[in-house]
């Protein structure tokens, strides 16, 4: 029996939003107002596809993007945490569910040599066209009214666990580590023996707290973190039980 670690990516593994970090590649490191104002709630992926088209039109190529993404900072203590997980992979299955994209996550993890930590990455598919433009698509379609149009993290987690069960695998405990509003939906799916680890001061912590105030607390345990070292301390406790 293993533990399943589920990670968000932006503002969790890395200390930035990978999608806004890429703007450092843009002319004068900013986007035109017309483009910035074109974002519509729940349609971030469509907005980013327009951002990538603008970068392509501006002559920003794959090499410039890759070197920019390789410089994104990891969240405090996260390098130590991922190093610890690598050394204890026999106890942990580890996945990412993120609203970033396959290209950015792959670049960042490979630049830091952390791609072996994760068994699977669920995120919006991205690729470069033959003309050198980066494009991104929705991860899937779903019917969850609480989540962005392109991604319901709860649906991803449910389908992952169903697939594992079919393969004869189940988990002692699920540990969900995230920060954002779109992490609440999968957290409400977690059961009594599981644990949600929201990042201190971020939206997920506030939303979980609000549910408790509304007398609709989540079923799982909640442990707030501000550094990957705190998450690592909890995982060490799990292994010593």
From TrEMBL:
The active site is at residues 8, 10. The keyword Magnesium applies. InterPro entries: HAD-like_sf, HAD_hydro_PyrdxlP_Pase-like, HAD_sf, Pase_PHOSPHO-typ. Keywords: Hydrolase, Magnesium, Metal-binding. Mg(2+) binds at residues 8, 10, 179. Its cofactor is Mg(2+). Substrate binds at residues 19, 99. The keyword Magnesium applies. SUPFAM superfamilies: HAD-like. GO terms for molecular function: metal ion binding; phosphatase activity. Belongs to the HAD-like hydrolase superfamily. PHOSPHO family. This is PHOP2 phosphatase.
